Automatic annotation (TrEMBL):
Cellular component terms per the entry's GO annotation: axon; postsynapse; sarcolemma
Reaction(s) this enzyme catalyzes, per UniProt: Ca(2+)(in) + 3 Na(+)(out) = Ca(2+)(out) + 3 Na(+)(in)
One GO-annotated biological process of the protein: calcium ion import across plasma membrane
Organism field: Macrostomum lignano
Designated name of the protein: Calx-beta domain-containing protein
Record localization: Cell membrane
Gene Ontology terms, MF aspect: calcium:sodium antiporter activity; calmodulin binding; metal ion binding
């Protein structure tokens, strides 16, 4: 856009649409450059925020459903279900890709129209520069962000199609700019470039549905092929909530509000998310906006970790099989893990036996290594260190390892150490499950021990008939020990609500747990929650009472409990709707825009306050955009797209004038400042998806598709429009090949190397057979290689732009 006269640094002749607004000829160039740079960065913040709004409309549009009736053979009746209208692959390659690349695409369109339908350097340069940043830098960050287990692209055939089209897109640019009609774009070339977008979408859809090849259909595939049936994954089921409340217990230190937030956090973490969700959440985290993740204060985070730790054993989660299917990639991989995350053993037993299980693909040989790690227990003093290779032969699903415990006959507090699993090298079709570390507690048995309740509170329904409360013996289990107990009235009254009781528990030598039973009376009357106290009063000589020597037993009326669950589910679901990106009203938008962290002051960080200060103006301006809840998101879609276009025009002017002031050519400004500024939200979104998702699809699987769409829409559409204009005028649309073709060829070579690397990482054993993560050393080598390719691309493109490298096309 800029045409700086030789020897002039005023840049008053820069071809721009809007800027400068004032006569800046008397201003110092250093001041102008600084102001334009600040304005450019501030505008990048603004375009990120309005692109966030744009993505919310896309999320609403692509999540639209319609009612369908089908015959349920199990029940023998017709049932109505909600079915998604948009196929996920089509949505990702069309609206989702447009949403993440809208600034780059609109910049290219606006530049050509603003230049009187003449080609510029900023738009095409930004398209290619963004593609390089997305494929090379974002992929590098995602590879290094994932742990050693690794993550793979699930829709690999779709990835192959989009990767092929992404390479062809840039080869096609070279063909039409150098071979077909050098330095000119004919009308047919512009039309074909634009139509390739639709061919890409159709080809990816065909591959996604498996029309071109026959594959073995798994149970998960059968479920998916039932049409995209929408089960209400974004709402909390009361039965699931009831189970979760039982895990929490009636903790007197937790308010109902805190229980609601715990439930909200627990269930929101397991909900599926789209690429748009990650993009929106990343932008809001960067800009101090309303987060889409439930945030908990430190106290509640500790409580949730305690609950999840206690639930690691036998899970009643109805989604357990779905989780296992995700881990095993529907039975393709072997998954190896411990059966539990913790085990306790008496010191006198002199052995801790840990069970390792294998599920998923059990038809192959898998080798893992079990190794001990010190905790408060010390190797060679409290236990004998272990470093053992465990082999699962075909069809073997369970193995055990024994760790020798040293019985020193001296009293010590209970101590812990850990046993961790690692995969041996070259395990192509195996991975570790989430229970890859087991905590072993050595219970000292050289003293009579300390008696205490397991929890500080328990909750029982009135109709249960009997409350059963465990008492444990810790820090010793030597000899016979006794502990006395009794009940004590609180709001619950003995004889009316429960049976007054007292007694004595006798622990034989080595016994570490007993239970107390108290009868509960059901009077069939509607009552509020009531509670009584259960106390450990005294113990035999040598033994001690622990810190939790009293516990609160809360009796809840069945109707009251059901009402509590219903009320909690309702308020939690209201909150879940509040963090959904497509349910906002105007009131919600302005409230979130005017408050740091969207109004969640308690969890706002210092960075949130700083970024909210800088972006407050943008947030208020874009809060006037109609919310996505109106007209199915389409009104929000078009209004936010128009605002992105206006802001992109300003960014184009800022970048062009800034580059002129500091001596940067438009082509160099495009592949550096502009490409980075428009792609940073995608970087954070992909990193978040890489760590949170079970697969690599949302992290890197969509990058090649977006890069293809950038060319077909970002260059194909404006070039087609310009070619139509010039053809109607009897002329030709001139697009100098020069720097653009050199940059395209460089990028094409680098992208081919990057895609070859991803394929090698998927199929070669030393990399861990996964696109992301895997072998620690090799994942950082891979990331470093991709970053080096990006730097090579930037440096070589800049050298060509300034004539250091001479290449004629």
């Amino acid at each position: 856009m800029s045409n700086c006269s030789s020897g002039t640094f005023l840049c008053q002749n820069a071809s721009s649409l809007i800027l400068p607004l004032l006569d800046e000829s008397t201003w110092r160039n250093e001041v102008r450059a600084a102001l334009y740079l600040v304005g450019l960065f501030w505008s990048f913040m603004g375009v990120s925020i309005v692109a966030d709004v744009f993505m919310t409309s896309i999320e609403r549009i692509t999540s639209a459903t319609r009612k369908m009736t089908f015959f349920n053979s199990d029940t023998g009746v017709d049932e109505q279900v909600d079915v998604k209208i948009w196929n996920d692959t089509v949505a990702n390659l069309s609206l989702m890709a447009l949403g993440s690349s809208a600034p780059e695409i609109l910049l290219s369109i606006i530049e050509i129209i603003g230049n009187g339908f003449k080609a510029g350097e900023l738009g095409p340069g930004t398209i290619v520069g963004s593609a390089a940043f997305n494929l090379l830098i974002i992929t590098a960050v995602c590879i290094c962000s994932v742990d050693d287990e690794g993550k793979r692209i699930k829709q690999f055939m779709v990835f192959c199609v989009t990767a092929t089209f992404s390479e062809f897109a840039y080869i096609w640019l070279v063909i039409i700019l150098v071979c077909s009609s050098p330095d000119f774009i004919d009308l047919w070339e512009g039309v074909v470039t634009f139509l390739l977008f639709f061919i890409l979408v159709v080809a990816a859809y065909i591959m996604d549905k498996g029309f071109c090849f026959k594959k073995a259909e798994t149970e998960a595939d059968k479920e998916a092929n039932k049409g995209l049936i929408v089960h209400d994954a974004h709402h909390i089921n009361e039965e699931k909530l009831r189970e979760f409340i039982k895990q929490i217990g009636k903790d007197p230190n937790l308010t109902e509000e805190e229980v609601r937030r715990l439930a909200l956090k627990k269930f929101s973490e397991g909900m599926p998310h789209s690429r748009a969700w990650y993009r929106i959440n990343a932008t809001r985290q960067m800009m101090g906006g309303h987060k889409l993740q439930v945030q908990l204060p430190e106290k509640l985070q500790g409580k949730l970790a305690e609950i999840e730790g206690a639930g690691d054993g036998a899970s009643s989660d109805p989604h357990l099989k779905a989780k296992q299917d995700a881990l095993t990639e529907n039975g393709r991989l072997s998954v190896v893990e411990f059966t539990s995350t913790s085990v306790a053993v008496l010191e006198r037993d002199q052995r801790a036996r840990l069970t390792i299980r294998r599920y998923g693909n059990v038809k192959q040989r898998v080798v893992v290594k079990a190794e001990t790690v010190d905790g408060t227990a010390t190797k060679n003093e409290d236990y004998v260190p272990l470093k053992k290779t465990v082999v699962f032969e075909p069809d073997e699903t369970q193995q055990t390892v024994d760790v020798e415990i040293i019985d020193d006959n001296q009293w010590e507090p209970d101590e812990t150490f850990f046993v961790k699993l690692t995969l041996e090298k070259d395990q192509k079709l195996a991975r570790l499950g989430p229970k890859k570390i087991n905590q072993v507690t050595i219970i000292n048995d050289d003293e009579p021990g300390t008696f205490e309740f397991v929890n500080a509170s328990y909750l029982f329904k009135e109709s249960c008939g009997r409350a059963t409360v465990p008492v444990r013996r810790v820090n010793g289990a030597d000899g016979v020990a006794k502990v006395s107990w009794k009940t004590e009235d609180q709001t619950a009254r003995a004889g009316c609500d429960y049976e007054a009781s007292s007694g004595e528990l006798i622990f034989n030598h080595g016994e570490i747990e007993k239970t107390i039973e108290v009868a509960i009376y059901d009077d069939q009357n509607k009552e509020k929650d009531e509670h009584f106290k259960l106390l450990l009063t005294e113990c035999s000589e040598g033994a001690k009472l622990g810190q939790t020597s009293a516990t609160i037993i809360t009796i809840v009326d069945d109707d009251e409990f059901n009402g509590f669950i219903s009320r909690l589910a309702h308020t939690a679901n209201v909150d879940l709707d509040a963090i959904r990106v497509d349910r906002n009203t105007y009131a919600d938008q302005f409230r979130q825009a005017m408050n740091v962290n969207g109004g969640d002051i308690e969890n706002a960080t210092a960075i949130d306050y700083v970024m909210h200060f800088f972006t407050f103006g943008w947030k208020i301006i874009f809060a006037v955009i109609p919310p996505p809840s109106i007209w199915g998101g389409w009104l929000c879609f078009f209004v936010s797209l128009a605002m992105i276009g206006m802001l992109t025009a300003i960014i184009g002017d800022l970048a062009s004038i800034f580059g002129c002031l500091v001596g940067l050519k438009d082509s160099v400004t495009a592949i550096t400042f502009v490409a980075l500024g428009t792609s940073l939200p995608d970087l954070f979104a992909s990193k978040q998806a890489a760590t949170a998702d079970d697969s690599a699809d949302n992290a890197v699987g969509n990058v090649t598709g977006s890069n293809s769409v950038n060319v077909f829409l970002g260059l194909g559409l404006p070039w087609m429009i310009a070619a139509i204009y010039h053809t109607a005028k009897g002329g030709s649309f001139n697009v100098p090949a020069g720097d653009l073709v050199f940059s395209v060829i460089l990028y094409t070579v680098c992208s081919m190397l990057a895609i070859v690397l991803l394929i090698l990482r998927r199929f070669v054993k030393p990399f861990g057979c996964s696109e992301l993560g895997g072998n620690r050393t090799l994942k950082f080598v891979s990331g470093g290689f991709l970053c080096t390719l990006w730097l090579f691309y930037i440096v070589m493109s800049a050298l060509k732009a300034y004539g250091v490298i001479v290449a004629n096309f």
